[in-house]
Amino acid sequence: MARQPTRPAGLLPDGGGYRAQVSPPSRPGNLPPAPLLRAALIVGCLLLLAAGAYLAVRLLAILAPVTIAVIVALLLAALIGPLTEYLKRRWLPRTLAAALAVLGLIVAVAGALFFAGQGIAAQQGSLRTQIGAGIVRLRQFLAHGPLRISDQQIDRFRTELLPTLRRALPSPLTGAASAVEVLGAIVLSIILLFFLLRDGPSMWCWLVRQLPLGDHHRIDLAGRAGWRSLSSYARGIVAIAATDAIGIGISLFALRVPLALSLTLLVFLFAFVPIVGAAVGGGLAALITLVTNGLGDAILVSIAVVVVLQAEGHLLQPVVMRRAVRLHPVVTLLAIGVGGVLAGVVGALIAVPLCAFVYHATGAYRAASEKKAGGGDGPGGPLPDS
């Protein structure tokens, strides 16, 4: 009987010969499962992103006057950009067209503030008397109305409130510094607005060219989509704010409420905060009407505010703003809240347009990336100079 050849240790038969036996790599016993490792990696990336976002927000908060000036200039450029383009089409040089657009905006704002101040100055004497009588009526209503608040409780509340208000008010030095910051931010916004209107397209093309070559086309599409959204939002919110102010202002003028023009301007400014702004401005107008004209007129103003808000919510917002923003009301409210916490009133004003810009820009970038991955158009041709 033939003797079988002995197989070398550590080798496996392979046809007419042998091959080395390779053991699979052993997994360390103390290594966590793969799903847990992936989850930890995702959480780590999210924490890094959150830390980066926090540092960016802190940096922007430190540079708050400059940041706010830049954002306000961008919003105003989106609003009056079509006017500049119209003037350019009338064969005006772009420098002159941008200067006229900025000058028109300054005249409009200064005129509104001037007429509002004139109304306050003209009615100052009678307004003081009406406010005093209104406070007396309010005390009587609180004492003899359904609330039954005694004079002692009212006096105690006033005594506790006055020190709090004094502490909340800035000192003269702090107020002067804040006024200088606000004035500087306004001047910076005006200068930036002029250059954005004059050189905005060429500045954008230069910025895109500084980025990696393969991303030029997608970033350009994303930026232009976000800018169109911002322009639509700016025009839409101005139309809605004007409608709210006119609707509530008609009731104020019809009831001969003192400072009707100033209150109308106040409602217009508050209405730039979506969803809640017009309600707050209308509530302040109704409160002042209560003090100056009495409960009956205040109820009529409140009814007018409710009617205007219903018209805005069911007619203007769906028609004017839905295409521009496309954000759920919950997202809008959260954006307003976060913006208000981070940057006060200005943050609440700019939060929603920034969210709209980011939403449309990321959507356009994602669509362009999917089209490129699917074999669509490539990076496209060179960017225009303007």
Describe the structure in your own words.
The chain has 386 residues and is mainly alpha-helical. It folds into two domains: 62-210, no CATH class; 215-374. Helix content is 79%, strand content 2%. The protein has eleven helices and two strands, in the order ββααααααααααα. The chain has a two-stranded antiparallel ribbon with strand order 1-2. The longest helix has 45 residues, at 329-373. The chain is extended. The chain starts with 10 loop residues before the first strand and ends in a 13-residue tail after the last helix. Mean pLDDT is 81; it is low at 377-382.
Observed structural traits:
386 residues; mainly alpha; 2 domains; two-stranded antiparallel ribbon; 11 helices; 2 strands; 79% helix; extended
